[in-house]
Amino acid sequence: MSFHHGTIFNMTDKPTSASTVPTLEISNVFKSYKDGPRILDDFSLDLRPGCFCVLLGSSGSGKSTLLRVIVELTSVDSGDIRLHGVRLTKKQRRRVGMVHQDFGLTDRLTTAQNVMSGSLTALSWWRIAFQFYPHLIQQKACALLSRVGLSEDHANRRTGQLSGGQKQRVGIARALMCDPSLILADEPVASLDPRSSADVMDLLKSAAQERDAAVLCSLHQIDLAREYADRIIGLNNGTIVFDGPPAALTHDAIRAIFEFDETSSALRREVA
Amino acid sequence: MMDTAHDSQPHTWHLKQPFGWKSLLVLFLIISAASISAERMQLDRMVSQIGDFALETIGLRESSQISRGMESVTRDMFPIAISDRRPTDLMDRLDESRLPFLAHIETVEIETTELDPDTLQMTTKVSERQFLVEPIGYLLFVLGKMVETIEIAIWASLIAILVSLPLAWLCSSNYSPHPLIYGVARSLVSLLRSIPELISALFLVLAFGFGPIAGILALSFHSIGFLGKFYAEDIEAANKSPQQALKATGASDFAILRIAVLPQVLPSYTGLSLYILDRNIRMATVIGLVGAGGIGQELKGRFDMFQYDRVGTMLLVIFLTVMALDLISARFRKRLV
After folding, report:
1. SS3 A39
2. pLDDT over 70 at B134, yes or no
3. What is the per-residue pLDDT for B188?
């Protein structure tokens, strides 16, 4: 699970002035799985602070891999990823929050404990061993749970007892624990009903705006992308086939992203 | 990615059948092997002996080998021994003013007839012999031994659990720090599991002498082999999603295991640990047979001396204890899981 340093990352790692530097810079990233197709093919992307960017694409288009690569859940074959102009390291990763499709919560822990687990990197081993979180972290978790609309009662309940929409709120609160400047969201509403989906997307957008954090959110729902995105990036087979504001997302662009033919009538209706 | 269903007509498709000629062949081989093995294991004799015994029970036969073999045991085992009666002159120190619980001293006159070497005539002498009688003495002694047996089992289980928790980390393929450490840890666990308690107890008695130490170690070695394997498999099978979420924040392996894995596997760990405790209590009664402490040591001694009434007492105590612990552990499991 490590980047091939040495050969690829030979540029200097000095941060430049904050105003001009993008939050996230991805340049020339290649990734393919063993004996498989190329998932990311010379992928490059800049993300400005505060931008809500949606990655739109069908299953297998490389959306999830791109997000996983940023937090090193998957290693790249080659390429460079920088946060605020600095090459992404384990320490840098503390400023990246991530929201997962299947929530990524431990059901048998309480909701508050799940939220506080977003700040484990800052704690010593014995605090982790006894789940003895410092007072400041506890207060922060309470504030964030309240921010995402959950109560003290929810905080002390086991997460397994919450509904899907509530679980994703907890997931967002955990992602906010590290004061992120970049929030990654991997299909955050894929398993939610339309009402909860809208709530979660609203929350994600407003929470990011409050912090001026950039959001990179993968979606496959065109309507949600149109509604929430400042910028939409269409992915097909690991390359960018569309990049622009929601207003520029034309029928042709959608055809290029989802590659559908005349038989897929459901999608044709959605486009129309 | 269009499917290939259009290539052929549905009426030409072949669906997999649950049984075929291969299943029949396997069944035939199994039956052949079983019949050869049954011959070697004298299963025919077993059936005829049990049949004889059954016929005798309903009165169609005079006797059977089983009843002849068990006759002395069943005759002597009941009533079971509750009290204890020992001659005082064989006891080193007996303070008559401070007798054990419920005990009293019984004096018995004994007539002995012997040849007087001077007169060459048979003379009868009357001597007094004192016995210490404890009405529930033997039962108390057996209960004490049973408590010792349970203590052996608890310590063995505790040691096994404490060693297995970190060992499971090294034994789980997804968290072991190095493939070499993984290999060594896995082999160690397999080795410990493959040696039966009774065998390792034989050697540990040589190393540590008679008594509970050998028993505790023998039981904990085997338990580590069992728990290490199953704890590790639980770690490997745990839901990956929370683990990935914490990994994405840059958390260490230890933090992921503690926060995302341990809460998931805890119900299963509790079940496994209670099973091991249960098993160790049963096994602790057995390993005493080779001198590793507990009630088994007493059981073996009395069995060898044909004192079946005392054996009966012990069997009853063991049976009741195991049943009681079964009830307790079932309750405990319900509350914890």
Report:
1. strand
2. yes
3. 96
Domains of chain B, CATH where assigned? 21-76 (no CATH), 84-135 (no CATH), 138-336 (1.10.3720.10)
What pLDDT was estimated at residue A197? 93
Mutate which: A117, A133, A178, A183, vs B, most B CBs within 10 A: A117
Interchain CB distance below 8 Å, A73 and B252: no
The token duo for B84 is 């204890």
The maximal CA–CA distance of chain A, rounded, in angstroms, is: 60
**pLDDT band at B131; cut points 50, 70, 90:** confident
- Using alpha carbons, list the distances in angstroms from residue B113 to A50, B109, B121, B123, B331: 114, 13, 10, 6, 64
Instruction: Give me the percent of chain A exceeding a pLDDT of 70.
Output: 86
**Of B45, B193, B241, B320, nearest in space to A171 by CA:** B241
Domains of chain A: 24-271 (3.40.50.300)
pLDDT single digits (tens) A125-151: 999 999 999 999 999 999 999 999 999
Residue B270: Cβ within 10 Å count: 15
A96 in Cβ contact with A90 (< 8 Å): no
Closest CA to A1 of B181, B258, B248, B180: B248
Measured CA to CA, the distance from residue B225 to residue A140 in angstroms comes to 44
pLDDT digits (tens, 9 = 90+) for A204-241: 999 999 999 999 999 988 999 999 999 999 998 888 99
C-alpha pair distances (Å), A50 with each of A19, A210, B122, B123, B140? 12, 9, 121, 119, 78
Decide if A106 touches B, using CB distance below 8 A.
yes
Chain A residues near residue B252 by CB distance under 8 angstroms: 120-121, 125
Count CB neighbours of A121 within 10 A.
16
Q: Which residue type is seen at B92?
A: D
A68-81 mean pLDDT: 89
Give residue A268's pLDDT band: very low, low, confident or very high (50, 70, 90): low
Task: Look at A108 and B251 and tell me if their CB atoms are within 8 Å.
Answer: no
Which among B250, B254, B263 has CB closest to A93? B250
Q: What is the pTM of this model?
A: 0.80
Q: Is the peptide bond before A49 cis (omega within 30 degrees of 0)?
A: no
pLDDT band per the 50, 70, 90 thresholds, residue B193: very high
A226 contact B CB<8A: no
Q: Are B284 and B216 in contact (CB under 8 A)?
A: no
With tokens 């009774």, the residue in question is: B198
Q: Which residues of B touch A108 (CB under 8 A)?
A: 263-264, 266
Closest listed residue to residue B291, CA positions, set B160, B185, B165, B201:
B201
Decide if pLDDT at B55 tops 90. yes
Go through chain A and tell me how many residues it has: 272
